[in-house]
Amino acid sequence: MNSPVANSQADPYPALGLRLDPRFVGGLIEYVRARGGIPFAEFMDRSLYGLDGEGGYYNSGVVSIGNASNDDFVTAPERSRYFGRTLAKALVDMHTAMGRPGRFDVIEMGAGNGTLARDIIETLKIEHIELHDALRYTIVERSRALIVRQQRVLAGRPRVRWIHASADSLPLRKVRGVFLSNELPDAFPVHRAVVRHGELNEIYVTVDSHGNFSEEERSPSAALAAVLMDLNKVFPIAAQPEGERLTVNIRAIHWMRELGMALDEGYVLTFDYGGPGAIRKAPYTVFDWEQYPLEIGYQYPGVVDMTSHVDPIILSKVGAGEGLEPIATTKAPQGVYAQPVFLQAYGLRESLRREKDSIKRNRGLRLLGKDYSNFFALVQRKTRQISCPDKSNDQKGLLSGEAPVRQKEGVHVYRLGDIPALNDISRRGEFPAGYYVHFMRLPNMDVNLSSFRRGKVICSGCVGEDGRILWPDGLRVRAAHDTYIVITPFSASEMENRLVHGGNVASCGPYAQGCLLGEAKQ
Ligand SMILES: C[S@@+](CC[C@H](N)C(=O)[O-])C[C@H]1O[C@@H](n2cnc3c(N)ncnc32)[C@H](O)[C@@H]1O
Questions:
Q1: What distance in angstroms lies between residue 335's CA and the mean position of ligand 1's atoms?
Q2: Domain covering 76-186+311-382 assigned CATH 3.90.480.10 in the classification
Q3: pTM attached to this predicted model
Q4: What are the strands, taking DSSP E only, across 149-189?
Q5: Cβ atoms within 10 Å, residue 398
Q6: How far is C-alpha 494 from the chain's CA centre?
Q7: What is the pLDDT of residues 483-503, one digit of tens each?
Q8: Looking at residues 118-125, what average pLDDT do you find?
Q9: Which of 102, 251, 357, 361 is most buried, judged by most C-beta within 10 A?
Q10: Do the Cβ atoms of 404 and 367 come closer than 8 Å?
Q11: Which helix (H) or strand (E) is 206 found in, with range?
Q12: All structural domains of the chain with their residue ranges
């Protein structure tokens, strides 16, 4: 099958006001011709990142990410500083859940103008100095031109470093902290495939005798063939209808694996557009805040951005195979949240209520509106592999020689999705003996003291002498998204009493502080 898709010799759409770089286009035509055709992913890669590092959309210096009407696209951090401010709160939460280590790495991959990094660091400096002091901020960026821009924006910020590399081959290992990205995997070049008799053909780009880019179906390239087995595990190809066109983000699969290997302990926080089933959507081009069909990408290689929707379910499943467990709830079983829901959970709406400048407030509110209805937040976690002391007496384990860390006294709050972490701590006997373990319904996702007042105890267990949780026999909890586990010195009746009589847990000596992920400590 051979179908011409573009005439790249002249400026085919002068009304769009786009300027072709004839040298780059000529070079690209030669590149494709000399190879007798290339997979679509390679075409997309060259269009975005150039030939031998020269030209290409992201290298050209023309890329304009921002809030002005002549920018190509606006990302959430460019839309409003409240995106970074809210993410700073999530990072505080994660730092807390990890026991507030004195060094906490945040690795931002694909940082654009550097705006998100700036807003996170500024917020931490003003509001969370402890984390600011522990923070080591690393930007992994593929575009040299954008690194220059980021370095200007972040000039004078201590402990920020850059790695010029692709996020899917990270020169990093044993990271303790958070891997963070906004709109990264959508920028990865994607392979395009067609289901034929339960298997995949791949779409190649060729050049016809008139100098037009054409599409052609061929058997899968080595790169696609190499991931088919893994892809099949998370997305069975034989079950897809004949002729279905798929957009396979191979780099995103490698990227997830890479993160699993690089992270020793901590979180992966991925924001992007797309959703379940995005693998069935075609890539497209973007400029002037508008989406255009893929054809424009063939007409203006190196001039327009090319992108594709991201399938977070596939990422979540691939990550799970690498030890990145999704932070799941009943509503988000794969750890995939609507981005506005995630931002609300970290108090964006409340922060905006306090904003006096109406322009800033409205910009922030847009992060919760329809512009972001197809954006997701994927939240994954890796817990440290701790060697079990009673099995490893004769070995030097990771933590051997260290005294077990006892939890500080207080009220500890877990989401149901955190049960694996909870069990892990329980196995190590780290909870205060004599404490109670309550399953509670707390009406707000963003647990805070007022939500405790409106909470209800569903059932309870306790912490034994050895610090392990003793769950009630035959425990069955019908979990809802607002079910939490609260570990506290108060029995169920004391708890109810305080809740009914309007007292709050915090006023009773030991304190409670809400968090979305993991444990709340103070
Ligand atoms: C759509 S922009 C998003 C920029 C920024 N995160 C924001 O929200 O404004 C994609 C960013 O990812 C970078 N990028 C694309 N592919 C990459 C890769 N394989 N490794 C690292 N960075 C990459 C681009 O250069 C750019 O900085």
A1: 23
A2: no
A3: 0.73
A4: 160-164, 175-182
A5: 11
A6: 40
A7: 677 777 777 777 766 666 555
A8: 98
A9: 251
A10: no
A11: strand 199-207
A12: 2-64+191-247+289-304, 76-186+311-382, 409-507
Distance between CA atoms of residues 326 and 127, nearest Å: 28
The dihedral of CA 508, 509, 513, 519: what is its sign? negative
CA dist 256 and 248 (Å) reads 14
Give the mean model confidence (pLDDT) for residues 145-158.
93
Atom of ligand 1 nearest to the CA of 78: 9
Which pLDDT score, from 0 to 100, does residue 201 have? Answer: 97
Q: How far is the C-alpha of 457 from the C-alpha of 444, rounded, in Å? A: 15
- Residue 289 structure tokens: 């805040």
Ligand 1 atom nearest to 108, measured from its CA: 6
> 421 pLDDT exceeds 70?
no
- What local confidence, expressed as pLDDT, does residue 20 receive? 83
What residues pair up with 284 in beta bridges, in sequence order? 307
Q: Which of the 8 DSSP states describes residue 402?
A: P
Which residue spans within 274-387 are E strands per DSSP? 284-287, 290-292, 305-307, 325-326, 336-338, 375-382
Ligand 1 centroid to Cα of residue 168, in Å, is: 12
Q: Which residues line ligand 1 (CB under 6 A)?
A: 58, 65, 75, 77-78, 109-112, 116, 140-143, 146, 166-168, 182-184, 187-188
Q: Phi-psi region for residue 494, left (φ > 0), alpha (ψ -120 to 50) or beta?
A: alpha
For 85-97, the pLDDT digits (tens) are: 999 999 999 998 8
Query: What proportion of the chain, given as a percentage, has pLDDT over 90?
Result: 54
